[in-house]
Automatic annotation (TrEMBL):
Region of interest called NMP, as start-end residue ranges on this chain: 30-59
Protein name: Adenylate kinase
Keyword presence, Hydrolase: no
UniProt note: domains: Consists of three domains, a large central CORE domain and two small peripheral domains, NMPbind and LID, which undergo movements during catalysis. The LID domain closes over the site of phosphoryl transfer upon ATP binding. Assembling and dissambling the active center during each catalytic cycle provides an effective means to prevent ATP hydrolysis.
Location of this chain's protein in the cell: Cytoplasm
Gene Ontology biological process terms from the UniProt entry: AMP salvage
Source organism phylogeny: Bacteria, Bacillati, Bacillota, Bacilli, Lactobacillales
Lineage top rank: taxon: Bacteria
Pathway: Purine metabolism; AMP biosynthesis via salvage pathway; AMP from ADP: step 1/1
EC number(s) given by UniProt: 2.7.4.3
Residues that hold AMP according to the record: T31, R36, N57, L58, V59, G86, Y87, P88, R89, Q93, R157, R168
Species of the source: Streptococcus merionis
InterPro entries: Adenyl_kin_sub, Adenylat/UMP-CMP_kin, Adenylat_kinase_CS, ADK_active_lid_dom_sf, P-loop_NTPase
Length: 213
């Protein structure tokens, strides 16, 4: 079974990916893992990616696409299938993935799309606060410190502040929407309601994947 998993930041994609991999025994392929493996194995593309990263530059699409194709061509994928997580990030990468899969003779079986109202994700992502003295992490709504806590004793990381979260969500929505529509036109997208208990989300995913097998 060959799958993509998609969802905005905070949608619980990582948690659900781990559950899918555990139950269905597919290879979990994330871009971070692929880059680390290619660099560690000193492949030509891995070394090229490292040269960009060492210079503080973004790795160009053609290098990222090449590393993905390299990974998808490995023997374990033929035996287990894969769950691709964090790629494609742009519609151009989606087209490159289509071409790579066609060349490798691999078909995509489904795209799991975890959906949550962006306003709820905004609340979820921008509520994190950190205790200045201990570094302990809390959430204003879901895991607040003791009642009547002093806000001055806590701080927020820059990327957790509401304006930063809003920008990140906006960018992700604009990038992911064309990708989802691309795969929807192929009849591959399965929308999953993400605003429910983790186990309930997974029960929906499990039902979809059991029907794909």
């Amino acid at each position: 079974m060959n799958l993509l998993i998609m969802g905005l930041p905070g949608a619980g994609k990582g948690t659900q990916a781990a559950k899918i991999v555990e139950q269905f025994k597919v290879a979990h392929i994330s871009t971070g893992d692929m880059f680390r493996a290619a660099i560690a194995n000193q492949t030509e593309l891995g070394l090229l990616a490292k040269s960009y990263m060492d210079g503080g530059n973004l790795v160009p699409d053609e290098v990222t696409n090449g590393i993905v194709k390299e990974r998808l061509g490995q023997e374990d994928i033929k035996a287990t299938g894969f769950l691709l997580d964090g790629y494609p990030r742009t519609i151009e990468q989606a087209h490159a993935l289509d071409a790579a899969l066609a060349e490798l003779g691999i078909s995509l079986d489904g795209v799991i799309n975890i959906e949550i109202d962006p306003a709820k994700l905004q609340e979820r992502l921008s509520g994190r606060i950190i205790h200045k003295a201990t570094g302990e992490t809390f959430h204003k709504v879901f895991n607040p410190p003791a009642e009547g806590y002093n806000e001055e004793d806590y701080y927020q990381r820059e990327d957790d502040k509401p304006e930063s979260v809003a920008r990140r969500l906006e960018v992700n929505i604009s990038q992911s929407q064309p990708i989802i529509e691309h795969y929807r036109s192929k009849g591959l997208v399965h929308d999953i309601e993400g605003d429910q208990d983790i186990e309930e989300v997974y029960a929906e995913i499990e039902k979809v994947l059991s029907n794909l097998k």
